């Protein structure tokens, strides 16, 4: 009985394999034939194909041109700011300081140098620069690098932590290019906004977006 079952299974397996071979042969013959229905698509490498859009819309071209013009006009007034400050290292945890703080109060804690990088832009030809307050906060030394590569030491004129705005001053030997400040009250939601600066020390970066909201604190 077992032998007859095994023979039947072997016979069915051979039949199935034969059918598969026949189907594969028919598929290969159809694929290799020269008719259009069974032809295999050839590679498009090396063939010239038209671009998705032959001629960009005039509005798109005008917007791109405006971006490049704004960048060219404003970039000379954008500066890189490096602020150096000294901070205590090896601060104790609150629990450790509660029990053992009196033992270490008289011992000076080691200081380490900390630097922050940021951007700013020149708002007057004689060297006044607008930047963020967090960039120059507690700074002992401030160095400003102009777009042309020249560096100057800067002093803090004033700062406002609430609005994160600060004004610093350098002493250039000649007049500097300056930006033209606009009126923020005239801004509308949906208008283009361009950010030009030196994030993480990467000079000459341009980012585009839109104004998402106004009158937000």
Main sheet overview: 7 strands, antiparallel
The chain-level mean pLDDT equals 79
What is the total tally of β strands? 9
Order of helices and strands: HHEHEEHEEEEEE
Count of alpha and pi helical runs? 4
Are there runs of 5+ residues with pLDDT below 50, and where?
34-40
Order of strands, widest sheet? 5-4-1-2-3-7-6
Distance between the termini: 89 Å
Structural class: alpha+beta
| General shape | extended
Radius of gyration: 35 Å
Strand content: 25-35%
What share of residues is helical?
Answer: 25-40%
Write the topology of this structure.
Blueprint: H1 2-32, H2 58-74, E1 78-88, H3 94-104, E2 111-122, E3 128-131, H4 133-136, E4 141-145, E5 151-153, E6 155-160, E7 165-169, E8 192-197, E9 205-210
Antiparallel strand pairs: 1-2, 1-4, 2-3, 3-7, 4-5, 6-7, 8-9
